Amino acid sequence: MYRFVLLLLTILIVGCNDGDDTNNSTLNNNSNNITENNSSNTNNSSGLMGELQISFTTVSNNGQYAPRNCAAVWLLKEDGSYIKTIKLYGYHYDYYLFRWKGDYDSTDADAVTSATRTGHGTINLTWDLKDYTGSNILPGVYEVWFEFTENNGQGPYAFESITLDGSEMSYTGTDSNNFSSISINYLP
């Protein structure tokens, strides 16, 4: 019996290490600036290669729980087809991210999740251009969506349209009341 329990514990411990050291995360609580790296150098013969770097700053809308907030960043095709959730903050409160929930196919858990954000600031994300199935995306027009809420209800959201054609691209988005300093860069 002792050997069985030891074997079971060994399997569980080894199983918890997925061997993926490509997800690196840095959080600076003093400034609420977040940097995420979710990139992979896996070669895929079809689709775009490289990475998409997304940076933006959230600004409070003075909600009930401000400055704490849950947030999501995801991509859609131009026709509204869901591609991937790049980052989800506040997993247990994601049901208040109504715009994201409307686009997201909740049967596929594809998001890199983190705790509820304790404040606002700059978020930096790097994405490996893989959709929720693990396939590289094809060249085309995409929408990068941002949403957060500080309430038990709908919060602000915005999106930026970008064209990815395989060549290096830098894009500066339009500032709004709650999202500013939007920068999207494609590096093949």
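^ that was protein a. below is b, sequence first then the tokens
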Amino acid sequence: MMFTSSWKIKKIVRLFLQIYLNFNSKYMKRFLTAVFAFFLVSGIFAQQQNPVFDSVLAKQYGADAYGMKSYMLVILKTGTLKTDNRAFVDSCFRGHLDNIGRLAKSGDLVVAGPLGKNDLTYRGIFILNAKTAEEAEALLKSDPAVASGLLGYELLTWYGSAALPAYLEVSEKIWKLQP
């Protein structure tokens, strides 16, 4: 990032030139040049404050200083249970969809969706608003498709925008047909 105002740069350059021109030693001039270069580069890459930062909103979403937070990423995959009982499978997946709605409404589920066909037997993802794997597993146990073994899962910690849950309000307004 760059300095926000060029007068700071001009002031620093003027000061450097005054000091530099008053020294006769070439070694001292080299030293001062190196010091000046260090401070110039440090200023160029210094972190800047966000002029529209909203501390109340950041706190509401649990954001750290970078506007980020940790979530639990769940990769749903084909489970170990194999069955031909269509009524049972339909019931579990109806419960799975209902559970997604319940978790989203409570704020525990931030993102959910299926994955396209793949060779890894991955079926979908969840991003859970959970701090630990234990919290995430407790939420997953409430899903009938997971509890029955029709779906398995892998858990990973994911660091993303703390504002991610804000999309849910809009998401609720744009679907036409509920699955």
